[in-house]
Each structure stands twice: as C-alpha cells, then as structure tokens.
Design brief:
This is CehA/McbA family metallohydrolase. By secondary structure, the chain is of the alpha+beta class. The chain has four domains: about 210 residues, Sandwich (Immunoglobulin-like), CATH 2.60.40.10; about 90 residues, Sandwich (Immunoglobulin-like); about 140 residues, no CATH class; about 130 residues, Immunoglobulin-like. It has 13 helices and 40 strands. It has a 16-stranded mixed beta sheet that branches. Helix 1 packs parallel to helix 3. The longest helix is centred in the C-terminal third of the chain and has 24 residues.
C-alpha cells in the first residue's frame, strides 16, 4: 500500500525538518515526486524505503503477539554530548496490530524521561547509586505521534540525548502498549489483525556502538548592574525549546522539575555546538534578560548583565520566604531523601532572597531533621554528592560570589504529615528544639494544634499557619465576606481558636485567591487581634518555580546576618513595617500622618493622611493573543501582578483599606519607577489601615486607636468567627484523639467566649 507508506514517510521527514535536523533537500524533493509517479505501488514503495534506509537508526519488527525485536539500521550512530540528535525508526508490523509505541534505553525503558516525584525512580536503593547513575547515560524519546496504525511499514522519529562524549555502547528497545485493555490478563495465542493489544510486550533491543561528539563547558559571566558577581537562574533552550542540561538527566543542584538551573558567576553549563536562547533572572525584582548565543568550537564564555528594576534592601526592606522544603513533593526520594543545605542555599541565592526558612515535614522528616541547628546558616554552594554528580557528568567547580553572604537559611519545622495536620499545617519559625516533648516518632505528636503552638511559643518561636487559603474558598471574591467555610482541607483552620487564646502569630499566603486567604485575617483584625499575614511559596509543593514565588519584605535597621539572622528578621515582623506579595510591586514607608509605627494613638476621630512610596513593574504590553489553533492565554495562577493589570494598560490600582473595606484608590503606572501615593482618610473610630494591590502586594496594617478605645470594628466579624469555630469543630473534632478531645473542646469554647465578648464591645455591625 503505497499511499499510507508515503504519507508516513513524508510526515517523518517533515518532523525531522521541523525539529531542526532536516534530511538532504533533494531527498525530500524525490520523495514528493514519487506521489505522482506512474509506476506500480510496489515499485514506488520500494523506492520510498530505499530513499529513507540510510537515515534509519533502528528497525523494529512487531510479531503476531505484539513482541518487538529491534536491529540496528544503516544510519551512522553519531550523537553529541549533552545534546540531541534525531533519526528515523522503521516499524514493520506484518500482523497489523494497533497500539502505542514507546522506546528507550534497554533496561530502563521509558523511565529516565519520566516526570515524577522521584526523578531517579529507577534507582531503588542508596547503596549502588553511583554505578547505576553512570549506566544511565542515554535518553531517548519518540518525537511526534507514537501510535502504531496497523500499516505493514511506517516511520517514526526518535531523538537521542547523550550525557557523555566518546564511544559508548547502548541498547535501544521498544514496546507496544495498548490504548484499550483486554478482558483477560492472559496473552492470547494469536492477535487478530487490527486488534489493540492489552499489555506491554516483551522487547528485544538493538545493541549499537555510538560515537558521541564532545560538547564544551561554557562559562557564564553573570553580573549585577554594578558589576558584582552573584547567583542567577539561567534557562537555556535550543530551537526546539528543549532545556539544557537535559531535565531527565539532572541531579541536584539542577532540578528535573525546573526549566532553569542556578549558576554563579564563573560556573558552567556543558553545551554542544548550536544556537541557543538564554534567559536570566534573579527573582521578581529583576526583568528577565534574554540573549541569543551561537556556541561554536571556540566558545568559552557568555556574558550576562542582569536587569534589576527594584532593590528593596536599599530602602531597608529584606525579603524572605518562610516556607520552602528540601525534601518531599517534587524533590526526589532517591538517590537521597531530598537535597542538602548546599543546594537549598544556591536556590535561595538564585532568587535574590535574604532569608529562606527550610521546613522539615513528614516526607523525609527523619533524614532532613539532621540539618536543624537552631541557627541561621549561609553554607558554600558545593556539589553535595560529588561521586554521584561526577557519575552524572557534573564536573564543574562551584564558585563563590560577592552576594553569597546576603542569603541565609534557617531550618525549622512544618507540622504537616503529623497527627494534627487536619487542623491546618503549622509553621514554627525560630525553634531551639524541634522534638516535641515525650515523642519519638511523628505519630506521637498531639492530634490538634494548640499544644504544638504553645510549645513553640515557649521557645520564643513565631508560630502560624501555612497555605492559609486551602479549603477556605466559599464561592465569592468579596473581602471580607460572611460565608462560613466547611474547613475541609489543610488551610489555616484552627487559627480561629489559637489567636484568641494568644497562641498564633501569623498565617501565610500569596498563593491562591485573596478572598480564600485573607478573609479570616480581615475578620481577626476587625475585632482587634494583631495577627500577621506573610507571603510564602511552599516550594516545591504548591509552586515548583523556585523559592520566593510568594515572599515577605521586612523593614530592619540593618541586614539580617549571622546565626541570629532569622530572629532579627522575625523581630522586624513583630514590631516593624512589612509587606508581602509576589515581589513585582513594593510599598515602602507606609505611614499614617507621617508615622510608620504599627501602633498609633490619636485623641479624636477625624481625617488622617495615609502615604507610601509604591513601585511596580509590568511589561508595556499584556501577553499577546494566541495564534490560531493555539490554547488561549491564561493569566498566571495565584498572586501575580499581571492579574492586577487594568485592561490593556500598564497601570494597577493601589487601594487604601479601613477595616478591610477600600475607602480610596489611585492608579499607578507599573513602569518600575517609585511613586508617592497619598490619601486623606476619615476615621470615625479605632481602626486598622492598610494598602494593597490585589494579587500583587499587601501591607501589614497600621492600628490606629482613637481616644484609647480598642479596635472593635465589626460585630458581624466577631459573630462570623464565633460561628466558624462551630463549623471547625464539626469538621475536625473526629480527627482529634479521644484522650485529647475534652481539652480541645474546652479551648474551642474559650475561643468562642472571647469572640462573644468582643462582639458585645463592637461599636458597629
């Protein structure tokens, strides 16, 4: 059947052209002419096969039971180190079976390119990982459609990546997998023509001696605008948008779930000759820089100057992410249980953060807890497992930079994967002891959070709740709103009990809907509690991008440094000015009547002047509309200034709030320049005041007490909090151990009593 064969061959040739590895131009022309040739189908089919034979790397034959046997083809098996080469695969299917074809290195077929929570899922233990990693040098994937359509002969395209240079022996094997399961697990004695196979079949691979051309170590000279050296996130892509180093071949500090890698000034990425687009950034305070680079045989270095648009530290504001992880979620489990401080500090530096709180939690808990010291640290960004990394081909030397000392880590604890996790995931920052009294394993810990919070406070730690919005969405974006949530997830559930009992300091967000995250916060503020809100990432669980997707900026008289850096940063949170968000907008020197203190006292009701300096940055144009047939553009998830853009303009709306309600607004041009905003705001009673750009930035409140009266701004808020405690008990009490339930009920009752007292003290509904 000439026409189906010709169509398959034409598609394969076009695919090779599209991915940048075209066959000779005359071959494509000769193939096209065969469509109009007057000779017989048999003659023309033979001509197609003869034309393509020199470019076939592997011949695959499928037998009547779906077993495959592969043999080397005629194409010279030449690869390139740290790069991709593509070839034709000829599939012979005389029994006309249907299914999906998968191909890869023999022994680890289809696994080395698998995106999972364990990047090295093919390495089941930690005793022999180095020889195993050394063996996994070849990555393969079929480019384009993988379905076997039942033709006698058809052609596929396979791309191969080599980690190594020089001569390497490898095996390529293929399997035929079904799209529809059979009724029986027993293989039928014969497969009918056109039948889709109900199993993964046994395969016989083709052993091939590959000649892998060596690549070059390209050094990156990364510079801040002032010429200083630093760590940055580099994304290197070829014309097919493939990331380098290969994501499936990465070991820490290069993560398989990132498009980018973190490199310091003077460090290298190994690249084959070719054209690349390289982008660089160092967190949201920088505009992304893009350069096109041609790597040639004599290319040694690429110079990149970063483009910083905001530097909050020069205004005394220091960024931190209070919620990142070194184990669990997207981190791999093998060859190690997560990553070490030497990797985490590289990621924190590469995102331009001053503080990173690395929280040990359920997954990898017993391994990761060894890094807790009760002090802030700034380790050297070494390659943490040299033997494994050398086996992986990572032979570059880590380099120190001028900015290394500005970024610190502090290992602390998230109570997640513990018996009390149902009540919300607790974050404990600044612990001196990470083991709850009387416990030996996680399962021994309390089954509700208040005892854990009080234990943290006894150590002078700050305690609060992670990813506060999870499970608290109620179908409205109104802030504040009065819909009682069902408390069915792991957001800041029990905070409504802990705050009135003096046992919780903050909740963390800047990840989800503002209404889901901040409604509880607004209500607590409305009845006079001084609860804080922080921006966090929960990296790499909620966000894989890197630390600092959500971040918190704290004003301090000097940078947080030394082994007590976190304590200094937390002290600024408790007593000074701070704001949180996505880092793409900033609010400096937020003041009421020129005073930036968080607590203000005035003698009588009347107008106050609210002021701040605001800076924000958006590209001049919103993202372009997608081309025909492409998916529609959707704004970034969570908090992102793109979601604050007003229409097609480059402006965003700054709002001033009194007791959670906007009472004034001003449009600000998001061009990166600092702009002063001022509002005259009437205050009729004691109130809290804040500024926000929804989905981008929010300040902590300034609390203004008039004539010595406490803030009691809303009876409805007090009643909502009281009623929410009932809903929380209904949802969570069944998860509390029977031996702890009476104490928990007593605490819930005390919280409700506190809300009723404050409700009766409120001046307005």
């Amino acid at each position: 059947m000439f026409q189906p064969l010709h169509a398959s061959a034409t598609r394969a040739v076009e695919k090779l052209r599209d991915i940048g590895e075209p066959l000779p131009e005359d071959l494509a022309g000769r193939l096209a002419k065969l469509a109009d040739d007057s000779q017989s189908d048999t003659v023309r089919s033979t001509a197609v096969e003869e034309l393509l034979r020199p470019y076939v790397l592997v011949d695959v034959e499928i037998d009547e039971q779906g077993y495959t046997a592969s043999t080397p083809g005629a194409a010279p098996p030449r690869l390139v180190q740290h790069g991709w080469r593509s070839f034709l695969v000829r599939v012979v299917n005389p029994h006309h079976l249907l299914g999906d074809l998968a191909g890869g290195p023999g022994g680890v077929l289809g696994l080395v390119d698998h995106h999972s929570h364990a990047a090295r899922i093919t390495l089941p233990d930690t005793l022999t990982v180095v020889p195993r990693i050394e063996k996994i040098w070849l990555q393969a994937r079929l480019a384009g459609p993988t379905d076997v359509s039942g033709l006698d002969v058809e052609y596929k395209v396979m791309s191969l990546y080599s980690r190594d240079g020089g001569s390497r022996r490898g095996e390529l094997a293929f399997i035929l997998a079904v799209e529809e399961a059979t009724e029986s697990l027993t293989r039928p004695p014969f497969a009918k023509a056109g039948q889709r196979m109900g199993f993964e079949s046994r395969q016989y691979g083709a052993a091939i001696e590959f000649d892998c051309l060596p690549a070059r170590d390209v050094r990156f000279d990364i510079r801040e605008p002032d010429g200083s050296s630093c760590v940055a996130a580099l994304t290197v892509r070829d014309s097919q948008r493939r990331a380098y180093p290969s994501k499936a071949m990465r070991l820490a500090p290069d993560m398989f779930f990132h498009e980018h890698v973190y490199r310091a000034t003077g460090e290298v990425i190994t690249l084959p000759a070719g054209q690349y687009e390289i982008s660089a950034r160092r967190g949201p305070e920088y505009r992304e820089v893009r350069v096109d680079v041609e790597v040639e045989s004599d290319t040694e270095a690429v110079t990149i100057e970063l483009d910083r648009w905001a530097d909050p530290a020069t205004r005394g504001y220091y960024s931190g992410d209070p919620h990142i992880h070194a184990g669990g979620c997207s981190h791999y489990s093998v060859p190690s249980e997560g990553v070490n401080p030497e990797t985490m500090i590289r990621h924190v530096r590469g995102e331009g953060l001053w503080m990173g709180s690395v929280l040990t939690w359920g997954p990898c808990y017993y391994h990761q807890k060894q890094f807790f010291s009760g002090s802030s640290i700034s380790p050297r960004a070494e390659l943490e497992y040299p033997d494994m990394q050398r086996a992986q081909g990572m032979t570059w030397d880590p380099q120190d930079t001028d900015h290394d000392g500005q970024s610190l880590l502090r290992y602390d604890l998230e109570v997640s994967g513990f018996p009390s996790s149902h009540s919300g995931h607790v974050i404990l920052l600044g612990l001196t002891d990470q083991d709850y009294p009387g416990t030996k394993v996680i399962e021994d810990w309390p089954s509700w959070n208040l005892p854990v919070m009080r234990w943290g406070h006894a150590q002078n730690a700050m305690v609060g709740y992670a990813h506060c919005g999870l499970g608290l969405a109620v179908g409205t974006e109104d802030l504040p709103n009065y819909v009682i949530p069902e408390f069915q997830s792991i957001g800041s559930n029990e905070i409504i009990v802990d705050v009135p009992l003096g046992a919780a300091d903050f909740q963390c967000g800047a990840e989800f809907s503002p209404a889901a995250e901040m409604n509880v916060w607004y209500h607590l503020l409305n009845v006079g509690y001084r609860t804080l809100m922080l921006g966090e990432t929960d990296y790499p669980c909620i966000y894989d991008d890197g630390p600092g997707v959500g971040r918190t900026y704290v004003q301090l008289p000097e940078p947080p440094q030394g082994d007590q850096a976190l304590e200094s940063w937390l002290g600024g949170l408790k007593d000074g000015a701070s704001y949180f968000g996505d880092g793409r907008s900033h609010v400096y020197d937020f003041a009421v009547d020129g005073d930036t203190a968080r607590e203000r006292s005035v003698d009588a009701a009347g107008p106050v002047r609210v002021s701040a300096t605001v800076a924000a940055w958006l590209p001049e144009q919103p993202p372009a509309a997608p081309a025909a047939g492409q998916p529609a553009y959707s704004a970034p998830v969570g908090w992102h200034i793109e979601r604050a853009r007003i229409g097609q303009t480059r402006t965003v709306l700054v709002e001033v709030l009194v007791n959670g309600v906007p009472v004034g607004s001003q449009e600000v041009l998001a061009d990166g320049n600092e702009q002063v905003v001022e509002f005259d705001v009437p205050l009729e009673r004691s109130s809290w005041v804040a500024l926000r750009i929804l989905r981008s930035v929010h300040t902590q409140p300034i609390f203004v007490e008039i004539a010595g009266r406490p803030i009691r701004a809303s009876r409805r808020s007090a009643q909502w909090l009281h009623d929410s405690v009932d809903a929380l008990w209904k949802a969570k009490s069944g998860f509390i151990r029977e031996t702890e339930r009476a104490e928990a009920r007593e605490a819930y009752d005390a919280a409700q009593a506190a809300y009723l007292t404050r409700r009766d003290e409120c001046e307005v509904d």
